[in-house]
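Narrative of activities, Objective 1.

The group set out to show that a structural description can be obtained from nothing but a protein's sequence at a throughput compatible with the screening campaign. Below is one input-output pair from the validation batch, recorded exactly as produced.
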Amino acid sequence: MRSFSVIDIWSLLLAVRWTVALAVIALAGGALGGLALALARTSQSRRLQAVSRGFIILFQGTPLLMQLFLIFFGFPVLGIDVNPWLAAGVALIFNTSAFLGDIWRGCIQAVPKGQTEAAYALNLGSFDRMRYVILPQAFKIAIPPTVGFMVQIIKGTSLTAIIGFAELTRTAQIINNATFAPLPVFSLVALLYFCLCWPLSKWSRQLERRLSAPLS
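Output recorded for this entry:
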């Protein structure tokens, strides 16, 4: 056993970059998946609506931890080798897609029906209606909740420690096992998570106030 030192503090600070990197991957991939799910949920196709609804129900209705387990331990059973990076990325992207898809579906449906009727009056096709009329206004509505959900993504990355991904929480576990100093180790980890999440929460509230002007 050794004492908790400056080197350990530096290791935790360096581990923050892997937490941020994983959160960025989850947000980028989840944004693409979420947009596809939102468009499918609001489409005229009952089949697309059913498939997207099933995906959202599945990944919202099961714990992220179980999704990580199934991907990391289940894929090798099927003959697909996955490392912690890939398993963590895939699980977080699927989970983020499900939640963003539902958030953005609500934002699309929150655009006043008069806007769609105006697009019909201009004889715009379905693609042009969505691209030029609906999505730009839905994007404005979606910014605050999306920024707010980024906090949940960052918190969710801590669960990847269970499959050995060496982000902030896993690094803290390794240091704690070597130093047996849980109070300073995990107090610093909590502070680092707070420094990541609190500015996003505050930014989300500011955006909500700034963008809360009603759509005409």
